[in-house]
Amino acid sequence: MVKRRLGLAAVAVISALLLSSCWTTYATPYVLRSDVNFADPGGLVAEGRYWMFATNWAFWRIPVLSSSSPTSGWTGTPTEALPSPPAKALGHFWGPEVQYMDGWYYMYYGATVAWDGSPYGEHAIFVARSSRAAGPYTPVGPQPLYRDPWRRGVIDPDVVQAADGSRYLLWSVDWGPGGRGSSVTRAIQGCRLNNPTSVSGTCGTLITANRSNWERGTVEAPALLQGPDGYSLVYSGGNFEGPYATGVASCGSNPLGPCTKWNTANPYIGTGWNGTVNPGGADFVPYYWGVYAAFFHANRGSVRAPHVQFVVWRD
Q1: Rounded to an integer, what distance in angstroms lies between the CA atom of residue 305 and that of residue 36?
Q2: CA 309, CA 313: separation in Å to the nearest integer?
Q3: Residue 4 falls inside a structural domain
């Protein structure tokens, strides 16, 4: 993950929690909005501002908010980042990820496509781009960008750039046509991005879901961090309606895994952590040298409200 110097505001170190041998999170996250559903917030630092893109809500296809600060100022009505989706994207505009690459802002997201012979929708990964961080984003390249070969569905894209400049696209394998009752083993998988609009090479499986522990058969919302001790995968598990929680796995030097989960019995962060309920959908953006702002959602009543937490890379 590329580090950018943005200017350091005062951040109090309050009961630090170990994320890995080199990552520490600060307690007491900031609640950014409690009046809007802003699930799976994908973060971006661009044009001198912070940006959050979220899973569709109400009539917004990928709502977007921005602020000059990661911890405050996220006011106003969201705008719509994807006003004209491709014809093959039928709905469920989920888990957006925006990256600045090759002079453009590229937005990756999951959406429903027609599933031949089945009443259920299948999810695939789509891509759009814009010359501005706020959008509007327009479809570019093949639509969809990636569709599971076995038509199980894929959601929640994540893009990571390695130290050598190579880029990788991660996603979560969905339940398939049987929904939560299906026999599909959900997983976090990924493949190399040949360029912003195509994948290439052999895809890898980072982790698979456990049906008998806190994951309840679901692993999704991947976010891959690169530190001096290798890659760390932060992911969500459980049911987004609750209980929902966040886990961590170590991936060594390979961004496509396999990765080893830190704890197979319990989540790393779950309900009750600093007063949060069902925390998940985390995404990370650079804040200062070695410090990252982790955007995530957690329930406040019936709203999946956006939060931010700071994560530091310790030498």
Answers
A1: 7
A2: 14
A3: no
Amino acid sitting at position 74:
W
User: Token digits for 23?
Assistant: 């990552």
Model pLDDT for residues 195-207, shown as the tens digit of each residue: 999 998 889 999 9
Q: What DSSP letter does each residue of 84-153 carry, written as one string?
A: S--TT--S--EEEEEEEETTEEEEEEEEEE--TT-SS-EEEEEEEEESSTT---EE-SSSSSB--TTS--
272 is in which domain, residue-wise? Answer: 17-313
- Please give the structure tokens belonging to residue 213: 């522990």
DSSP state string for 156-224: EEEEEE-TTS-EEEEEEE---TTGGGS----EEEEEEEEETTEEEEEEEEEEE--SSSTTTT-EEEEEE
Say which amino acid occupies 255. P
Partners of 195 in beta bridges: 198
Asked if the model's pLDDT at residue 4 lies above 80, the reply is no
CA distance 111 to 91: 6
CATH for 213: 2.115.10.20
Q: Which amino acid does the sequence have at 126?
A: F
How deeply is 142 buried, as exposed, middle or buried, from its count of CB atoms within 10 A (0-12, 13-18, 19+)? middle
pLDDT number for residue 118: 55
Any domain includes 35:
yes
Residue 9: inside a domain: no
At 270-300, the pLDDT tens digits run 998 888 999 999 999 999 877 889 999 999 9
pTM for this structure? 0.91
